[in-house]
Design goal:
The chain is about 80% helix and about 0% strand. Helix 1 runs antiparallel to helix 2 and helix 2 packs antiparallel against helix 3. It has about 70 residues and is mainly α. The radius of gyration is 13 Å and the shape is elongated.
């Protein structure tokens, strides 16, 4: 069940990132989803680290978008 939830959460995240055209973060989420297909989640840690890096790069753009929407 955990593996299925992991894959589902990864896919949901990937789809949401695609809405923002965040291609690099979307690719990282895709790798995370692929890692979730391994029953041992052996490569999940690497995929999570890459996704975290891409989300950190995305953070300033999202903050700017939030300010633009609020004004």
């Amino acid at each position: 069940r955990d593996q299925r939830e992991f894959q589902r959460a990864s896919q949901l995240l990937k789809n949401n990132l695609a809405l923002f055209s965040a291609h690099a973060a979307c690719e990282a989420a895709d790798l995370l989803e692929l890692a979730g297909r391994d029953p041992d989640l052996e490569h999940a840690g690497e995929a999570i680290a890459r996704l975290e890096e891409e989300l950190e790069r995305l953070r300033p753009a999202l903050a700017n978008l939030g300010r633009e929407v609020a004004s």
